[in-house]
Amino acid sequence: MTPRPTVRIVLADDERMVRTALRAILSAEPDLEVVGEAATGAEAVSVVRERRPDVVLMDVRMPEIDGIRATEQILATLTDPPRIVVVTTFENDSYVYDALRAGAAGFLLKRAEADALVQAVRLVSHTDTLLFPSAVRSLAAEHARACPAPAPWVARLTGRESDVLRLMAQGLTNAEIARRMEVGPATVKSHVAAVLAKTGTRDRTQAVIAAYEAGFMNAR
Amino acid sequence: MTPRPTVRIVLADDERMVRTALRAILSAEPDLEVVGEAATGAEAVSVVRERRPDVVLMDVRMPEIDGIRATEQILATLTDPPRIVVVTTFENDSYVYDALRAGAAGFLLKRAEADALVQAVRLVSHTDTLLFPSAVRSLAAEHARACPAPAPWVARLTGRESDVLRLMAQGLTNAEIARRMEVGPATVKSHVAAVLAKTGTRDRTQAVIAAYEAGFMNAR
DNA sequence: GGGCCTCTCCCCCGTGCGGCGGAGACGGAT
DNA sequence: ATCCGTCTCCGCCGCACGGGGGAGAGGCCC
C-alpha cells in the first residue's frame, strides 16, 4: 500500500470518557494523530478553526450548539474545510438526514468496532467517499417510497391529457389551462373529464393527489 | 491494529481487464485474497455459491443477468451470504438506488483510488457498515426535497385547520370532512377559508398542492 | 373586566366545476 | 373502406365551492 501521510483529527464530544476512548483507539495507529478536542459545539468550531484538522469526529448531542449546527458552521466559514464524520448512538436517528444535509462526509455509530473506526477515518480522510451505517437502508427505503412505480393509469394518459394534468397539478383553473395550452375552454373540460375517468377520481383535487402519489410530478 | 483474518473476495465484471486490475490491486494486500472471478451475472451467482467469499465486487452492467439481479439472487438463495459491493462508473447512476434496495452492502465508483478500494473492502468485510460514494449526497438531497423545511404557514395553522387540510389533501369534500370531523359543514367551510388565507391559495386544489410541496403530508 | 384567539355555526350569492350527450376532423390500423 | 383513438369544440344542468359578512361560546392573558 502507498505510504500514508498522517491524518490530523479533532474529537468533539461532550463526554470526556468518549473522547478518551476515541483518542486511545486512534492514537494506537501511527498514521493517525488527534490534534484537538472539544466538549461543545461552539468549542468544536473554534478548535477546528485553530488546528485545521483533516477529519473531525463530531458527536450529535452536545451542549450549546449541537453537532449538526457545528458542522454547518465549520463548512460555511472555513475554506478547505475538514471532512466531518458525525457520530451517534442510534442508527435510526433522524440526525442522519440532518447530518447529510449539513454536509457531513460520513456517519458512524458509536457501537462501531475500533477497527472499523480507524479504517473509516482513513477512508474519509483522502477520498470523497462517504461511509455509512445501515441507516442508509432506511434512506433508500424512503427513496423507494418517494419514487413509487408509476401507477398503471399514467401510461394510459394521452399527450394532451398529461399536459392538462400537469397544469392541474400546478393549481390552474380550466380557463387558465386553456389559455396556457392555447385551446378552447371546452377542450380543456374534455381532457379533464378524461383524466378524471382514467385516474378513477371524481374531481380535480383528487386527480392532483393521484398525480403526486403516483410520482407523476417527479417525472420529467 | 488487531491481526486481520484473510478476506476472501470474488470479482464479477464482464471486462477481463477490469478484473485483472482489481485482482492486481487486491492481491498486493496480504490480508486480501481473490478466490474467484465471474464475467456474467449468472456466473457470479454460481461462483459465489461455490467459493463462499466474504466480499463480492459486483459490476452493475453485465450480460445475461445484471449485477443488481445477481445481488438479489445471491442474497435470496444463500444462507450467511457475502457482503456485496456494487461497482459502477457513474455516480449519478440510478443503479445506486436499485443496488441498495437489492441489499448491496456498499457502493463504489470505478474511478476510486486503489487505496480507497482496499480499505473499502476491508471495512465492508467485517462490519455492518455501508460505504458509499458521493452519490449519497444526491440521495440526501432527494430526501431533503421530499422533506423540505416546513413552509412558515404550517406553524400558523390551528389544530382544526391542520386537520381540515389533511383531509382536504385526501380528496374529501367539505361535507365528507364535516362528517369525518363530526362538525357542521359550515364549520368546515370556515376552516377551509382560513386554510386558503394562511396558505395564500385560492382554492382547495392549490391548498393541497401547497400541503404536498411543504411536506405537510409527510409530517406525522 | 376587557381584549384576543379558537371553534362553532348561520345567511346569501356568484361561479368554477363536473356530468351528460353530441359532433366534426385527422390519422393510423386492418 | 372502415374502424378506432385522439384532439378539438358545443350546449345544458346541478351543485359543491369560495367570498363576504356576521355571531355566540369558551379559553387565555393581563
Automatic annotation (TrEMBL), chains A, B:
<dbReference type="InterPro" id="IPR039420">
    <property type="entry name" value="WalR-like"/>
</dbReference>
<keyword id="KW-0597">Phosphoprotein</keyword>
<dbReference type="GO" id="GO:0000160">
    <property type="term" value="P:phosphorelay signal transduction system"/>
</dbReference>
<dbReference type="InterPro" id="IPR016032">
    <property type="entry name" value="Sig_transdc_resp-reg_C-effctor"/>
</dbReference>
<dbReference type="InterPro" id="IPR000792">
    <property type="entry name" value="Tscrpt_reg_LuxR_C"/>
</dbReference>
<feature type="modified residue" description="4-aspartylphosphate">
    <location>
        <position position="59"/>
    </location>
</feature>
<dbReference type="InterPro" id="IPR058245">
    <property type="entry name" value="NreC/VraR/RcsB-like_REC"/>
</dbReference>
<keyword id="KW-0804">Transcription</keyword>
<dbReference type="GO" id="GO:0003677">
    <property type="term" value="F:DNA binding"/>
</dbReference>
<dbReference type="InterPro" id="IPR011006">
    <property type="entry name" value="CheY-like_superfamily"/>
</dbReference>
<feature type="domain" description="Response regulatory">
    <location>
        <begin position="8"/>
        <end position="125"/>
    </location>
</feature>
<dbReference type="GO" id="GO:0006355">
    <property type="term" value="P:regulation of DNA-templated transcription"/>
</dbReference>
<protein>
    <submittedName>
        <fullName>Response regulator transcription factor</fullName>
    </submittedName>
</protein>
<dbReference type="Pfam" id="PF00196">
    <property type="entry name" value="GerE"/>
</dbReference>
<dbReference type="Pfam" id="PF00072">
    <property type="entry name" value="Response_reg"/>
</dbReference>
<feature type="domain" description="HTH luxR-type">
    <location>
        <begin position="150"/>
        <end position="215"/>
    </location>
</feature>
<dbReference type="InterPro" id="IPR001789">
    <property type="entry name" value="Sig_transdc_resp-reg_receiver"/>
</dbReference>
<keyword id="KW-0805">Transcription regulation</keyword>
<keyword id="KW-0238">DNA-binding</keyword>
